[in-house]
Amino acid sequence: MNYTFPGLPENLKLNDTAPSWLNKADNAWELTAAALVGLQSVPGLVILYGGMVKKKWAVNSAFMALYAFAAVLVCWVLWAHHLSFGSYMTPIMGHPNVALGVYVLGREKETYVPKADYVFYQFAFAAITVILLAGSLLGRMNFYAWMWFVPLWLTFSYTIGAYTIWGRGFLLSSKIIDFSGGYVIHLSSGVAGFTAAYWDRWGLGIGHSHDRQHFPPNNIIHMLGGAGFLWLGWTGFNGGSPMSAGTIAPLAIVNTHICTATSLLVWLSLDMLVYKKSSVIGAVQGMITGLVCITPGAGVVEPWAAAFMGVMSGSVPWYTMMVLHRRSAFFQQVDDTLGVFHTHAVAGLLGGLLSGILAKPKLLRMFYINGDKYGPGLIYGILEGPLRNSLRQMVYQVLGAAFIAVWNVVVTSLICILISRIVKLRMNEEDLMIGDDAAHGEEAYALWGDGERHPPLLRIHMTPKFRPFCKRR
């Protein structure tokens, strides 16, 4: 798109000249925020997953994240963006179209940034959702099944959640408070991951019994490095949602870090009180639940409320993961590798409900165009009124959570059944025993020589002669 001005030659191209509607500060911030969200996935979750699993699954786990990032981008620009944010077609899905072309240089509605900004920012959201879901399937799922799963789940699950809550879907009139995706991203990934792990029990297999009982991280320092990318990247995750460099963005950022730090300290304290150990893995889990919990209300609650949400996110998911999970026969039957159900589904639901309780009316009006139709938060309804509107908002929060949960259970189940008819969902027992070398012919770390592998880990393990030597973890 070129712009001409009086006194300049008509054939002169001013490619850096901005249209009148563009706010360069908003544009610069949104590009930065989108990059930060992208860095959460690549390299953030790539490193986190690669370090948080057993050594034999480091390559496969990291590669699942890398593949999903690339696959989602292609699907997003070809059809998924418009299914999520396009013109009305059905109550649950937008009109399909291609998010490529000159028109992406035009203005994104009700903002001062180009549409290309919005397309890329929302892609980063979609990508991290699928990658978070993968945390339930690490070291279990056939990689070729995962290659099918990513585009199918993005198309028939994620886009529906985004369209119904953020787009033009049937839940739009409900005015659900979901600032940055507590429901659309975290509740959906947690429920879908747990559902896929449930099918893992029947279709993928429950995994090698020793792996289920003993699954230590292979590199805690790398795990902390990935966690650092995740935490700092959340600055763009929540800070970019207003699509502007205004007053709501820094509030969302401060609230994000307050809630996260509080949640980490609460989780760590509970570990020390109950287990007499300061667990590094526990601290990372507490960090994640804090990031997830604040997401649906980051820019519409005050800092004191963010700290309270941190206390809740550091304690409630801790109880469901460390106590309820171990006591429940049902939870014990489902092999959720990294506990994504607790860190994302439970924390995301908790954040959505707390947002309905703690959202401040003034902040709702500042963030939402029709902010008067939201809330107020239940606590403000009790103190200031009207209570009827606050109770209605809580009903909407529950309605949104119920729809996202039910849809993901049903659709994820159907996708797993469909894929199982095309390719095996579960890796065979020999591959599960060996890990990365069997799945990809590669290992994370060379233990001897010039990058050479020890013979028992080579493909000769497939012959009966060498199978006895391959029974190693």
Automatic annotation (TrEMBL):
<keyword id="KW-0924">Ammonia transport</keyword>
<feature type="transmembrane region" description="Helical">
    <location>
        <begin position="304"/>
        <end position="325"/>
    </location>
</feature>
<dbReference type="Pfam" id="PF00909">
    <property type="entry name" value="Ammonium_transp"/>
</dbReference>
<dbReference type="InterPro" id="IPR029020">
    <property type="entry name" value="Ammonium/urea_transptr"/>
</dbReference>
<feature type="transmembrane region" description="Helical">
    <location>
        <begin position="31"/>
        <end position="50"/>
    </location>
</feature>
<feature type="transmembrane region" description="Helical">
    <location>
        <begin position="280"/>
        <end position="298"/>
    </location>
</feature>
<keyword id="KW-0812">Transmembrane</keyword>
<dbReference type="InterPro" id="IPR001905">
    <property type="entry name" value="Ammonium_transpt"/>
</dbReference>
<feature type="transmembrane region" description="Helical">
    <location>
        <begin position="337"/>
        <end position="358"/>
    </location>
</feature>
<feature type="transmembrane region" description="Helical">
    <location>
        <begin position="394"/>
        <end position="419"/>
    </location>
</feature>
<feature type="transmembrane region" description="Helical">
    <location>
        <begin position="220"/>
        <end position="237"/>
    </location>
</feature>
<dbReference type="InterPro" id="IPR024041">
    <property type="entry name" value="NH4_transpt_AmtB-like_dom"/>
</dbReference>
<keyword id="KW-0813">Transport</keyword>
<feature type="transmembrane region" description="Helical">
    <location>
        <begin position="118"/>
        <end position="139"/>
    </location>
</feature>
<protein>
    <recommendedName>
        <fullName>Ammonium transporter</fullName>
    </recommendedName>
</protein>
<feature type="transmembrane region" description="Helical">
    <location>
        <begin position="57"/>
        <end position="79"/>
    </location>
</feature>
<feature type="transmembrane region" description="Helical">
    <location>
        <begin position="243"/>
        <end position="268"/>
    </location>
</feature>
<feature type="domain" description="Ammonium transporter AmtB-like">
    <location>
        <begin position="28"/>
        <end position="445"/>
    </location>
</feature>
<dbReference type="InterPro" id="IPR002229">
    <property type="entry name" value="RhesusRHD"/>
</dbReference>
<feature type="transmembrane region" description="Helical">
    <location>
        <begin position="145"/>
        <end position="166"/>
    </location>
</feature>
<keyword id="KW-1133">Transmembrane helix</keyword>
<keyword id="KW-0472">Membrane</keyword>
<comment type="similarity">
    <text>Belongs to the ammonia transporter channel (TC 1.A.11.2) family.</text>
</comment>
<dbReference type="GO" id="GO:0005886">
    <property type="term" value="C:plasma membrane"/>
</dbReference>
<dbReference type="GO" id="GO:0008519">
    <property type="term" value="F:ammonium channel activity"/>
</dbReference>
